[in-house]
Structure to design on (323 residues):
């Protein structure tokens, strides 16, 4: 069992992955600057409040904790904010990642799993999207992910930094029994927004019902955060066992429309979702679904919690505890 540093481990996906790593028997240290995360998402004693851009501190931490591999989640994640302040995204997500990689190289830690995104594909030509679909981001957030993937390829080739970028589709769900779930502020993700509308009675907006999809609303691939966490565990173990660098999509391979999600939320909560129908949002492709065969074949990963009602009921259980 290994010692693993989780950057951004006080955030949504990082906290679930920390939990999954511990369940597998790994030992974890979390590095987070708490800019967008929650101290109470990390067990006492495991959190180091540090910014990934602090190379020297990070190198010291890696050495002192005898870290063997890093899972790197720390980043800003809001597409809209990235169009208002692209420089923030290039600074935090790109320069921050470079500083982290420098610290890793200095400390001799040469295994990293990185949170990339389906946003790297932009508006894909082929759906389900295979990993060899060219990168074509349409916002600075997506570009920041592509830039880090590019750095990783060169650092792999010339510095032996073995890395796996995982391109996530729509992370959702929760691990309510562990007190973990989605708490973004501001929240931009569909399921928590619908649950909040149920709780507060204030309508949420659905952006567009005139897309070329069967019911007119956008189709996305909703992947349970704990299935996503399991994919990280498999990938970090693969690297620790001497496995090669590679890039993988992480999605279920099934798409659900916004209306289908709304129906699931109403089924699970037993209440109507107050909503209004708005116009399309710029840059929203009609359908984004992963071709997830590569990860299934290479590492035997299969999503265990793909059922939409299961996803929504886990998110609902968490939301009720954190109203
Ligand atoms: N949530 C999704 O659906 C989704 C989809 C695709 C990719 N991703 C990627 O997954 C990763 C995690 O996403 P999330 O939803 O858990 O986000 P989150 O905001 O909940 O977590 C990110 C964490 O990183 C920390 N952080 C940010 N900048 C930091 C810095 N410079 N130094 C140290 N800590 C820093 C924040 O405090 C926060 O705890 C991100 O890289 C994101 O781009 C998320």
């Amino acid at each position: 069992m290994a010692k693993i540093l989780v950057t951004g481990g006080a955030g949504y996906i990082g906290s679930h992955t920390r939990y999954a790593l511990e369940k597998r028997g790994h030992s974890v240290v979390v590095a987070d600057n708490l800019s967008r995360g929650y101290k109470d998402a990390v067990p006492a004693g495991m959190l180091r409040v540090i910014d990934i851009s602090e190379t020297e501190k990070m190198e010291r931490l890696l050495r002192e904790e005898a870290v063997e591999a890093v899972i790197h989640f720390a980043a800003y994640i809001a597409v809209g904010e990235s169009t208002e302040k692209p420089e923030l995204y290039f600074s935090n997500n790109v320069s921050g990642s470079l500083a982290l990689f420098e610290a890793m190289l200095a400390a001799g830690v040469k295994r990293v799993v990185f949170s990339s995104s389906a946003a790297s594909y932009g508006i894909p030509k082929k759906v389900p999207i295979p990993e060899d679909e060219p990168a074509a981001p349409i916002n600075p957030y997506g570009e920041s992910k592509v830039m880090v993937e590019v750095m990783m390829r060169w650092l792999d080739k010339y510095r032996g930094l073995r890395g796996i970028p995982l391109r996530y589709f729509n992370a959702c769900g929760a691990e309510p029994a562990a007190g973990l779930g989605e708490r973004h502020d501001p929240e931009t993700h569909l399921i928590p927004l619908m649950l909040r509308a149920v709780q507060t009675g204030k309508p949420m907006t659905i952006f567009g019902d005139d897309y070329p999809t069967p019911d007119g609303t956008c189709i996305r691939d909703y992947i349970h955060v704990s299935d996503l966490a399991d994919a990280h565990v498999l990938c970090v173990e693969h690297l620790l066992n001497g496995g090669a660098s590679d890039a993988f999509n992480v999605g279920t391979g099934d798409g659900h429309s916004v209306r289908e999600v709304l129906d699931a939320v109403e089924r699970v909560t037993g209440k109507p979702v107050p909503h209004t129908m708005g116009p399309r949002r710029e840059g929203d492709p009609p359908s984004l679904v992963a071709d997830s065969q590569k990860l299934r074949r290479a590492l035997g990963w299969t999503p265990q919690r793909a059922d939409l009602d299961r996803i929504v009921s886990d998110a609902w259980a968490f939301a009720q505890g954190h109203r």
Notes: Residues 53 and 96 are 5 Å apart (CA to CA). The longest strand covers residues 111-117. The radius of gyration is 19 Å.
